[in-house]
Design a protein that fits this description.
5 helices; single chain; Rossmann fold; binds magnesium ion; two-stranded antiparallel sheet
Length: 169
């Protein structure tokens, strides 16, 4: 297993990525678990804990979500992962425009260290590439025409899927 200094950096959103917004707005699904947290209910696909556990083994994952530190509570427990570092600008802004500013320096440092950086979010085709260092890659879970509003493992980049810790890939 690569040391954390060599592994890619992944910035991971919650709503529209782990929390399937399309299902929350529609009929209940047997393919999801419903996770109560901080007064909300998240619809998490049953494949997600295994996927995120694997991701945390092959990459350094930081939360990049308006859930901020709260993502390390019931959601992390449901996913079966340890607490993750949190991208946070120190405000409680519930919009998403603060994220690029707050994530810029950690992404820039990782790129300077020769690591790949992937930001996974439901961007709705509004990719903040101008606000992030050149070289950051983006995975849009709500990009046209596949507005999934949840992370589909088959959309992960091939270079990431190729990483294995020997237990899963
Ligand atoms: Mg989101």
């Amino acid at each position: 297993m690569k040391s954390i200094q060599q592994r890619p950096l992944v910035l991971l959103d919650v709503d529209g990525v782990l929390n399937d917004l399309k299902v929350l707005r529609g009929t209940p699904s047997e393919d999801h678990d419903y996770v109560p947290s901080h007064g909300y209910r998240l619809a998490v696909p049953k494949y997600m804990p295994g996927l995120i556990q694997w991701l945390c083994r092959v990459a350094e994952v930081h939360w990049c979500t308006t859930w901020r530190q709260r993502a390390n509570d019931e959601l992390a427990a449901h996913l079966g992962i340890s607490a993750l570092p949190v991208i946070d600008d120190g405000t409680n802004d519930r919009h998403v425009d603060w994220k690029a500013r707050a994530a810029h320096d950690v992404a820039a440092q990782a790129l300077r260290d020769g690591r790949r950086v992937l930001w996974i979010e439901d961007f709705y085709d509004d990719i903040p590439s101008d606000e992030m260092p050149e070289g950051v890659e983006f995975l849009d879970t709500a990009g046209y025409p596949e507005v999934n509003q949840v992370l589909d493992p088959f959309t992960l980049p091939a270079w990431l899927l190729a990483l294995s810790d020997g237990q899963a890939a």
